[in-house]
Amino acid sequence: MQATVDGRSYVLGNHRLIAERKQYSAALEQRLAEHENQGQTVTLLASDAGVLGLFAVADTIKSTSRDAVAELRTLGVTPVMLTGDNPATARAIADQAGITDARGNLLPEDKLKAIDELRQKYGPTGMTGDGINDAPALAKADIGIAMGGMGTDTAMEAADIVIMNDDLRSIATAIRLSRKTHAVLWQNITLALGIKAVFLMLAVFGSATMWMAVFADMGASLLVVANGLRLVRAS
Question: How far are the Cα atoms of 12, 130, 137, 166, 175 from residue 146, in angstroms, in the given order?
Fold first, then answer.
C-alpha cells in the first residue's frame, strides 16, 4: 500500500518490498528474523527517509490442523505448504502442523510452478486454499479444494470442491469416501456383468429358466443398489 500524507509518501509492505526499496540494515534484519522465526508475519511502514515501524502478527494454527495432516499421511498423501509468507514464518507454522515441505515467498505464478513440480514428482496433485492468490493454483491442480467459510468467492469459483465447515479433516474424509465409492463402483460393475455372463452361459447350454432371467435382470439391479447403500454408512 502506498499513500501520501501531508506531502510525504509512505508505503506499507512486506520484507521483500523494503529490500527492493534498499531500506535495509543489519539491525532491521535481526529484528525481522526474531519475529519470523517465531512464526510471525511482519508488515513494515516506511517513508523515503527509511523504515518507521513494523507490525508483527501471527496466525493461530487450528487445533485440528495437525490431526488433518496426520490423517492425510495415513492415506498416502504428502502435504506441502505453499505460502506468500516469508520462509521462516512458513517453516515455523509448518513445524506446528507437522508438514516437512514448506515453501515461502511464493507469488501466484510461483504456486503454479510448484503445482507442476509436485505433479511431476508425486503424480496427481490437489491444492487447498482460500485466497485470491490461491485461485490460479486451485484451477491448475488436478483437484482444487477451497475453504468455504473463510474463502474468497474467486477461490471457490476456481475450485472443484468447497469445504463449507473450513475443517481440513474433511479433506481426508472426502478422499476416503471417494476411494470407497471407486471400489464399490467396480464391485457393482463386476457383480452385474458376472451375473449376466453366468446367465448367458446357462442360456447357451439350454439350462436357463425364466426365473434365472428375472434374477439376472432385477436381481442384479437390487444387489447393485444394496451394495451401493453401504456408502451411506461410510459417509
Answer: 29, 5, 11, 9, 15
With bands split at pLDDT 50, 70 and 90, how would you rate the model's confidence at 70?
very high
Contact 129, 147 (CB under 8 A): yes
Q: Do residues 42 and 55 make contact, with C-beta atoms less than 8 angstroms apart?
A: yes
**Distances in whole angstroms, Cα of residue 74 to Cα of each of 67, 88, 137, 173, 183:** 11, 27, 25, 12, 18
Average pLDDT over residues 218-228: 88
CA 86 and chain centroid, separation: 20
Distance (Å, rounded) from C-alpha 186 to C-alpha 192?
10
> Phi and psi for 220 in degrees, rounded to 5?
-65, -40
| Cell numbers describing residue 1 | 500500500
Residue 61 three-state SS: coil
| Residue keyed to cell 463386476 | 190
pLDDT of residue 63: 83
- What three-state secondary structure class fits 103? strand
* Reported pTM: 0.71
- Is residue 162 packed enough to be buried (19+ CB in 10 Å), middle (13-18) or exposed (0-12)? middle
